Amino acid sequence: MVFTFDLKDKVVIITGGYGYLGKAIVTSLLLHNAKVFVLGRDRKKYEAAFLKKNKLDENLNFQFCDVSDAKSIESAFQKIFEKESKIDVLINNAFYSKGQSPEHMNDEEWNFGIDGTLTSLFKCIRSIIPYFKQATKGKIINVSSMYGLVAPNFEIYEEYPSYLNPPHYGAAKAGVIQLTKYYASYLGKYDVQVNSVTPGPFPSVNVQKAEGFINALKKNTLLDRIGKPEDLAGAFIYLASDASNFMTGQNMIIDGGWTSK
């Protein structure tokens, strides 16, 4: 038997699917024939991201979900399962945060960022487990960050303090990698694969307007450029497909070589 990257008949759930990187992931999933459910709170933003000539792809669906709320997550998964009779892949891409200062961040900002980056992801994993255990298969793909592996180069941010990576973000993203390994071990006996993808420098369109900052980011990669959303999407196709059935507990780093220096 030859496994391919074709996702036909796969039901894929993705949180944070209409953001800068999420949109590219969803678009690639659709190109590889997956049936995709984008979970989010704002249908208008979803439609703005994916409407083409006033139409949406027939394999694309919106499902309301607030990832900060365990009951909202459980309800969203249940509704999708009732409609499709299965769930094959969960991609945990959403996060929320506030606060930035390494010295003056208050407790509420710290807790909010940890909750939005790590705890919300845990809630999604916890809620999908019953479906994957029942099916004795499934795939969970978590999104970490290069700052879950290495500390920021603070020299880059000296002239651009508004872009400074906050301390709770990297701490939580490091936790995402550990949580990935934990649940890969815990769910392995059910033939559930749990892996993470770690993006490097993928600044948003607005951030790219700061040419000096972007040049500084480029110099920290081996490829001398920043990442484009489409550079990231292929990792998710591989991990969502049957081609990755023997891969679990791993962290795929897509960073242009940043963490290899």
From TrEMBL:
Q: Which InterPro entries match?
A: NAD(P)-bd_dom_sf, SDR_fam
GO MF term set: oxidoreductase activity, acting on the CH-OH group of donors, NAD or NADP as acceptor
- Note the superkingdom of the native organism: Bacteria
Alphabetical GO biological process terms: fatty acid elongation
Gene3D superfamilies according to UniProt? NAD(P)-binding Rossmann-like Domain
Query: By its UniProt entry, which SUPFAM superfamilies does this protein fall under?
Result: NAD(P)-binding Rossmann-fold domains (SSF51735)
Family of the protein in this entry: Belongs to the short-chain dehydrogenases/reductases (SDR) family.
The protein's name is SDR family oxidoreductase
- What species is given as this protein's source? Antarcticibacterium arcticum
